[in-house]
Write a structure and sequence with these properties.
This protein is an alpha+beta fold. The chain contains 8 helices and 6 strands, in the order ββαααββαααααββ. It folds into 2 domains: about 90 residues, no CATH class; about 70 residues, no CATH class. Strand 1 and strand 2 form a beta hairpin. It is globular, with a radius of gyration of 22 Å.
């Protein structure tokens, strides 16, 4: 009689790198660690707060998403909130001091990114129209504008403070195209007529 030997190959083991958190400190001296929320986590937060509340961009970008980013306050660990009550619990724990620290962190991050972009634009010798054209033709920018048009909170896609003229110009072109104004012609600086 023949002997049959069956062997299973071991599945490759995927080891994730240790998660990287951003560490900030509030005025109370607490250490707050923040996670970066990917599209999956952002979607789960929208589901956690519910449809009506998720439509409130001020609440989502100013409170719910920053609260969901909190992983630790000192030694207290926070998982990704599954309900609006859990988001409120994190907000309660953060208090004004924690929220102020998170807002300052985002403002500093925006200023650094803006300074880098301005320096790059200056180095490339771009004027405002050229900088707007470069931004508006960027596929990621176009995708994110489309997501905002379709209900994703602006603050969850764009970390920014006051917009520069070229940024406002690029946003207005994108949303005008989405609303059916035609396709913007960057050479003639007007919308091409629809046929």
């Amino acid at each position: 009689m023949a002997t049959v030997k069956v062997t299973e190959s071991a599945a490759p083991v995927h080891v994730d790198q240790k998660p990287k958190f951003t560490t900030i400190h509030d005025s109370l001296g607490r250490t707050i660690q923040l996670r970066k929320l990917g599209p999956l986590e952002q979607g789960r937060i929208v589901m956690a707060v519910g449809g009506e509340i998720a439509g409130n961009q001020t609440y989502m970008s100013g409170f719910a998403l920053p609260a969901a980013m909190v992983v630790y306050i000192d030694d207290a660990m926070f998982g990704l909130p599954q309900t609006n009550k859990q988001i409120e619990a994190v907000l309660q724990e953060l208090g004004e001091e924690g929220m102020h620290a998170i807002n300052e962190h985002f403002e500093e991050k925006y200023k650094a990114a803006k300074a880098e972009a301005d320096a790059k634009a200056l180095q490339e010798g771009l004027n405002a129209e050229q900088a707007a054209a470069k931004l508006a033709t960027n596929p990621e920018f176009r995708r994110d504008c489309w997501l905002v048009k379709n209900g994703v909170p602006f603050g969850s896609l764009f970390d920014c403070g006051p917009l520069e003229d070229y940024e406002r110009f690029a946003f207005s072109i994108m949303f005008s195209e989405f609303e059916g104004s035609g396709v913007w012609n960057w050479h003639s600086m007007q919308f091409d007529k629809k046929d």
